[in-house]
Amino acid sequence: MDLQGKWFFELITSDLILLYRVKSSLYSGKTDFQDVEILETTTFGRSLILDGKTQSTSLDEHIYHEALVHPTMLLHPNPRSVFIGGGGEGATLREVLAHKSVERVAMVDLDSKVVELCRQYLPDHSNGAFDDPRAKVLHQDARQYLTQTQESYDVMILDLVDPLEEGTAYTLYTREFYEIARSRLKPGGTLVTQSGPASLLNHTECFTAIVHTLSEIFSRVCPYTVYVPSFVTPWAFTIAFTDSEPRDYSPKEVDGLIPQRLSKNLRFYDGITHRHMFALPSYLREGIAQERRVVTDNNPVFMV
Amino acid sequence: MDLQGKWFFELITSDLILLYRVKSSLYSGKTDFQDVEILETTTFGRSLILDGKTQSTSLDEHIYHEALVHPTMLLHPNPRSVFIGGGGEGATLREVLAHKSVERVAMVDLDSKVVELCRQYLPDHSNGAFDDPRAKVLHQDARQYLTQTQESYDVMILDLVDPLEEGTAYTLYTREFYEIARSRLKPGGTLVTQSGPASLLNHTECFTAIVHTLSEIFSRVCPYTVYVPSFVTPWAFTIAFTDSEPRDYSPKEVDGLIPQRLSKNLRFYDGITHRHMFALPSYLREGIAQERRVVTDNNPVFMV
Amino acid sequence: MDLQGKWFFELITSDLILLYRVKSSLYSGKTDFQDVEILETTTFGRSLILDGKTQSTSLDEHIYHEALVHPTMLLHPNPRSVFIGGGGEGATLREVLAHKSVERVAMVDLDSKVVELCRQYLPDHSNGAFDDPRAKVLHQDARQYLTQTQESYDVMILDLVDPLEEGTAYTLYTREFYEIARSRLKPGGTLVTQSGPASLLNHTECFTAIVHTLSEIFSRVCPYTVYVPSFVTPWAFTIAFTDSEPRDYSPKEVDGLIPQRLSKNLRFYDGITHRHMFALPSYLREGIAQERRVVTDNNPVFMV
Amino acid sequence: MDLQGKWFFELITSDLILLYRVKSSLYSGKTDFQDVEILETTTFGRSLILDGKTQSTSLDEHIYHEALVHPTMLLHPNPRSVFIGGGGEGATLREVLAHKSVERVAMVDLDSKVVELCRQYLPDHSNGAFDDPRAKVLHQDARQYLTQTQESYDVMILDLVDPLEEGTAYTLYTREFYEIARSRLKPGGTLVTQSGPASLLNHTECFTAIVHTLSEIFSRVCPYTVYVPSFVTPWAFTIAFTDSEPRDYSPKEVDGLIPQRLSKNLRFYDGITHRHMFALPSYLREGIAQERRVVTDNNPVFMV
Question: In this structure, how many other beta carbons lie within 10 angstroms of the beta carbon of residue A158?
Answer without folding.
Answer: 26
